[in-house]
Each structure stands twice: as structure tokens, then as C-alpha cells.
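Worked problem 6 (solution included).
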Amino acid sequence: MRRIGIGLQLYTLRNETAADFTGTLRKVAQLGYEGVEFAGYGGLQAEELGALLSEIGLKAIGSHVSLQSLEEDLQGQIDYIKAIGGQYLICPYVADERRGTPEDWQKLFAFFEEVGAEVKKQGLTFAYHNHAFEFELNVGDEYVFDAMYSSTTPESVQVEMDVCWVQFAGQDPLAYIPRYAGRLPLLHLKDFNKDEQGSMQTLELGQGVVDLKGVIAAASDAGVEWLIVEQDNCQNPPLQSVENSLNWVKENYLLSL
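Solution. The predicted structure is:
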């Protein structure tokens, strides 16, 4: 297998970063994560954050940027990510009121193509991060997830696949990963079980139902650049959870290379 970068989506540590943004980043670096994907910047100026990342040896993978920010402040978002040395600008979510019909999605596809073209022109890469709802509605004869990528160009819109949500939606991540080989630079590495109500309970890696070893092997074959650990809600203290998940990655992937 190829050596893929190991990153952390900082949403997992949202309470910790809210209390101490710079201190939490230092702890993430000390754990051994190679990169981070941002979900907010803790009020830091880009130059300050860029200097901190350089000091502690963390790579800025990129950032989750809300649809509203894409619409209202695209240039500001591009400038910030470039200033901290990031590469990826990712739309992480579409609210219910923006995605009720196939026509809503078709408008979004056109918007994403436009945004992605501008992002690429300025040297960055635009991607979209899925949940389960992209597999609950069709546009034409395809799920929203697939229609998004058949309606846009690889040059403008890349895939950030969250395998946890793909599987929760009833799909097979091991089938979906190779389908998007070459267009899939980022993959959210997550694990889960369903609770008694059938809701997702995100878990530390190796504690749930996702075939994570198979996912990593498929990601290697598909050209994924970053495996990004994320846990939406943690049963242990979140810093302990992300350390446990990184240890799983080391024992089940990195040490076997």
C-alpha cells in the first residue's frame, strides 16, 4: 500500500479549540498527527495561524467552509487558506431548506462548478463532503452523490468521501471508493455503530462496523492523499479519543508499510 497522510478534522475537538485553540493544536501535533482540516480558525489572523503551524510541524490540509461563506466571502476564504499553506476548500454540508428537490441540487451543482473553477484558478482545490442525505434523493436516475460528480467536472469539484456516512446510508464504501479513483484526494476515516433508535453513534477507529482496513487499502489504490480522522461525538474525552484512533492507524496501517 501507498503511504497516505494522516490528518484530523478539528470539529472533533470543537470544545477544546473553543477553550484553547492554539494549545489544542499543539497537543494534536504532539500526538503525531501530520495535518489538520479546519472548521473555523479560533479568531486567529492567517499569518498568526500559519506561523503556529510551521512552528509545531502541522500541515494545513484545508478547511470546511460553509455554503453561506462560499456565497458571501469566497475570496476571503481562498486568501486565508492560501496564507496558512492549505490546499483544499471543502463545502461540508447543505442545510435542509437548500436541498429539498432535485432542482435545488441542480442549482447547487452549477454553483459548485463555478466556485470550483475560481478556486482552481487561484491555485487551490474545491471538494464536497457528504453525509447520508446525498443517498436519499435522486437527481435523474442517480443518487445526489453521484449526480453531483457527473454534473460537474473533476477539475472544479473533487470528492471528500466520508465513509462512515456512506455506509450509514446503506451503501458500500469499498464499492464507492474505487468509483471515484483519481477524483478522491480526501477521505474521512470514521467508525460507528447504530444505537437503539437507529441513529449513528460515532466511535473510535476499530470499535465499530466499518471495514477500516479495507477502506485504507481501497483508498491507497484510489490515489487518496489524506486519511482524515473524525469522530462527531466522543464517549471518552475527545483528545483521548483522537489519540486512541491514531494509535489504531499506527498499529493497523502505518506499522505494516
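Discussion: Residues 36 and 191 are 19 Å apart (CA to CA).
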